[in-house]
């Protein structure tokens, strides 16, 4: 029983894993529509002896696959994402992410009957929008997990770092239509309210800390230039380094929205159009174990960059319920940005698929360490408890 056995299992299945990744990459599906991807992934896990629950929490394309050794031990979780982006497909590399985690699970399962413990793969749809990790976390589905892990494809190696807590806010203004030339004084201009909201938020930014991000669009602004718009809608992301601070900023943004309604005479309806994401709380002890395994597999520590803020992740919600990491794995040979067609195309090449296999091995080896090293497991748990109290 050794890591060599884990790596051998992954290598034996590597071509199949690559084929599934290519299939998902060639058939991109938006969040909560990942029917083909979910089917291929669950069938693969069942073929390797996992018990699969489909439609977790009533989400059709979500799943939880589990293998229980029947012996006491830690619970290791790997998280799979497989949703694509509008127009640009798998430009965030989720076709690689899902197979990084499934490859790791298949490899680690090969020794689980000897190590003891439980192994799970969480199929988590729609990370780009209404991420399933949010309701899964809220339902307590990660509360008994000792280590939750996933890796993300990128143009360099990077430690698990931070992410921003985020709220997705929608503001709907309703006014009164009127002929814009003959009787503009009879109208109440909802678009004016949206424009005032944008200007108020622009002024607000001067009094916000540097880690705060507020960005929005107008999704509805009227139907014709000669009609006073009676209905207008704006959507914003509000982000900051922590949930507590994001909540404070949201309260200020809401006051901006209310002020715009008062100034124009419009009525205002406010809602969340996507789930709120919490900040990522990287478990540094678990992250260090991952880096040691990455080095053992041939990536020198000096090639691994410090973790950075890459926006918002629904894994943040998971990381507040159990120890979690989200490192980045190099899969392309030049600096290509995520969410671009260039990254999408490069992430389908042999280098990217080989990087996927490396990530699977590193994740599996880190899970093995948590299962077999009682001191590491206790250190991971202790750090998590300290962070929760803080």
From TrEMBL:
Source superkingdom: Bacteria
SUPFAM superfamilies: Bacterial exopeptidase dimerisation domain, Zn-dependent exopeptidases
Annotated ranges, domain Peptidase M20 dimerisation: 172-258
Family: Belongs to the peptidase M20A family.
PANTHER family: PEPTIDASE M20 (PTHR30575), XAA-ARG DIPEPTIDASE (PTHR30575:SF0)
Protein name, entry field: Peptidase M20 domain-containing protein 2
Organism classification: Bacteria, Bacillati, Bacillota, Bacilli, Bacillales
């Amino acid at each position: 029983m050794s890591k060599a056995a884990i790596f051998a299992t992954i290598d034996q299945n590597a071509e199949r894993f690559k084929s599934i990744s290519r299939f998902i990459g060639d058939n991109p599906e938006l969040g909560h529509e990942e029917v083909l991807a979910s089917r291929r992934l669950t069938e693969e896990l069942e073929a390797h002896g996992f018990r699969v629950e489909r439609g977790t929490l009533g989400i059709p394309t979500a799943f939880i696959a589990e293998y229980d050794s029947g012996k006491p031990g830690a619970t290791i979780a790997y998280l799979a994402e497989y949703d694509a982006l509008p127009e640009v497909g798998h430009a965030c590399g989720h076709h690689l992410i899902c197979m990084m985690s499934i490859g790791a699970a298949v490899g680690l399962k090969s020794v689980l009957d000897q190590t003891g413990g439980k192994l799970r793969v969480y199929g988590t749809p729609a990370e780009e929008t209404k991420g399933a990790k949010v309701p899964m976390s809220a339902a307590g589905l990660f509360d008994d997990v000792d280590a939750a892990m996933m890796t993300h494809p990128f143009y360099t190696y990077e430690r698990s770092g931070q992410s921003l807590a985020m709220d997705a806010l929608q503001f709907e203004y309703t006014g009164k239509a009127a002929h814009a030339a003959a009787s503009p004084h009879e109208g109440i201009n909802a678009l004016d309210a949206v424009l005032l909201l944008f200007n108020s938020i622009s002024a607000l930014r001067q009094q916000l800390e540097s880690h705060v991000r507020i960005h929005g669009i107008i999704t509805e602004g009227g139907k014709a230039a000669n009609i006073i718009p009676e209905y207008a809608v704006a959507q914003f992301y509000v982000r900051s380094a922590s949930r507590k601070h994001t909540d404070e900023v949201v309260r200020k943004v809401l006051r901006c929205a209310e002020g715009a309604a008062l100034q124009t005479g419009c009525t205002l309806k406010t809602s969340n159009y996507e789930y709120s994401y919490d900040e990522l709380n990287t478990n540094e002890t678990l992250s260090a174990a991952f880096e040691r395994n990455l080095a053992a597999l041939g990536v020198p520590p000096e090639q691994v960059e410090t973790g950075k803020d890459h926006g918002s992740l629904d894994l943040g919600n998971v990381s507040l319920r159990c120890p979690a990491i989200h490192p980045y794995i190099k899969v392309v040979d030049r600096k290509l940005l995520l969410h671009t067609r260039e990254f999408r195309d490069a992430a389908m090449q042999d280098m990217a698929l080989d990087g996927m296999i490396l990530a699977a091995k590193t994740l599996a080896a880190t899970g093995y360490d948590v299962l077999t090293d009682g001191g590491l497991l206790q250190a991971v748990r202790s750090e998590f408890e300290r962070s929760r109290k803080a």
